[in-house]
Amino acid sequence: MLCVSLIPHSLTELKSQLRKAARLSFLIELRADRLPITHPNRLPVLKNRPIIFTCRPRWAGGFFKGSETARIQLLQSAIDSNRFDYVDVEYGIFKRLKRPVSGKTRIILSDHNFKKTPNNLNQIYQKLSRLKPDVIKIVTMARDISDNLKIFKLHKYTNRGIPLIAFCMGEDGLISRVLYKKFGFWIMYAPLEFKDATGPGQIPYFDLKHLYRADRLNKQTKIYGLIGQPVAHSLSPLFFNHIFKQKKINAVYLPFRFKNLKSFKSFNDFLDVLGYSVTAPYKTSIMRYLNHLTPLARRIGAVNTIYPDKIGVYRKGPGPTNLIGTNTDAWGAWQALEQAFRSYQTGYDYRDKTALIIGAGGAARAIAFWLRLSGMRLIFVNRHYLKAKKNALDFKAEAIKFSSLPGYKEPVDLIINATPLGTWPRTNITPLPKKFFKPGMIVFDAIYNPPETRFLREAKEKGCLTVSGLGMFLYQADAQLKLFLP
Length: 486
Ligand code: NAP
Description:
Layout: E1 2-6, H1 11-24, E2 27-31, E3 51-54, H2 68-81, E4 86-90, H3 91-94, E5 106-113, H4 121-129, E6 135-141, H5 147-152, E7 164-169, H6 174-178, E8 188-190, H7 205-211, E9 222-228, H8 236-246, E10 251-257, H9 264-271, E11 275-278, E12 292-293, H10 295-300, E13 305-308, E14 323-326, H11 329-344, E15 354-358, H12 362-373, E16 377-382, H13 385-394, E17 398-401, E18 414-417, E19 442-445, H14 454-461, E20 465-467, H15 469-484
Parallel strand pairs: 1-2, 1-8, 2-3, 3-4, 4-5, 5-6, 6-7, 9-10, 9-11, 12-14, 15-16, 15-18, 16-17, 18-19, 19-20
Antiparallel strand pairs: 11-13, 13-14
Helix pairs in contact: 11-12, 11-15
The protein binds NADP nicotinamide-adenine-dinucleotide phosphate.
């Protein structure tokens, strides 16, 4: 169940937020930290909408400015008033409160760690359960994506008769918030909007409900995701989750922000992920964690897609990890450019043409792979010249230094940006001065966010045919989907 979490500044704001929340969600959490009240009797309540009442002090991530005695009195009044279905209290003050003798109010006993996700979550659970609350809540700060696994392992306690709420806070805790139901946890909190978040890393209600469909997931839900750093700019979660919803597939696609790949193997073994997209900076470094690479991935030297070896051809030993790495970027770029060439001129002959590729990473090599096959002459230019030289060697191409680019006079038919220069939010950057563009050139940007970069806009202004990275994105993602689904 999703629970809209409110933290209003005034009673007027509370009334309007309650109306909105009641339209969206069955359960509502009311954080009274910022309200100018000393007794909950002044608070409006709703018919047919259970409310969790709480008030957090600064030491528990809240905003209550009064004394601890005043806060405890407020919580005790909330319990005694019998107006709320639940009152959430921290472990530290539980013993100072009198529990409800009768009436509807139940106690959520919570333990927060705002610094880290400790290894002793089992002990924390035992400590809380000894006090026999109605609901147990364990919330920790994720410092790394692997911290979510510690929370997921608490699922063994979900069948003990006491509902359990458990998740990680912070940006790295996103997956624990989305997958709460898959692991049997009772509810997940969500603010009405991002700006109304009541805790670090909260996912707005709309995204949790409609992008990830978190309240529809269950034990059987299959997991897919994107490995990278950063991952927040990616359209992949939108693309895959939309397809899963449309095709009624019980699956979810998540952003997996790995700070490094040290925990990748244990993460994969635990979560049993059925397919990954891979983005920078891990397209090469991920290779050593995989059981098999397709010849295409080997040739390009970059993996953007990982899928399980369904028939076990490449199984090397026991264990659940049996992953194949391939590359769909080459296909995506090929399809996007072919489409552009077709709209430009029928029977485009690549063999007489020259392409200038800015960048020497995974995308540059994937694009070069296909262009070379089609017989184009390739020139690489890259910030680190040695990488451009290596690519030139691998693809029988040429390399020039970044510094010599402004004065480069050779005719070029196709220019490709395969660097992140110009990606949102730094959209005012461009890898090439406008004067470089000549009418009739084809200009392709691998970036898809924004769909029209400054690079493309300036090329268009100079009479070039421009191709956005959005087409490449959609073609490569569609190819991934075919590999992901059984
Ligand atoms: P990558 O492997 O990390 O390579 C990045 C390349 O950009 C490297 O050549 C790097 O140069 C260069 N670069 C990075 N920062 C730079 C800077 N400040 N100034 C000059 N050069 C810089 O990344 P990738 O996977 O190839 O991705 C490159 C771009 O293509 C990204 O924007 C990515 O989003 C986009 N992409 C789009 C699609 C799609 O479907 N449309 C698919 C894949 C990638 P050094 O070698 O000197 O570090």
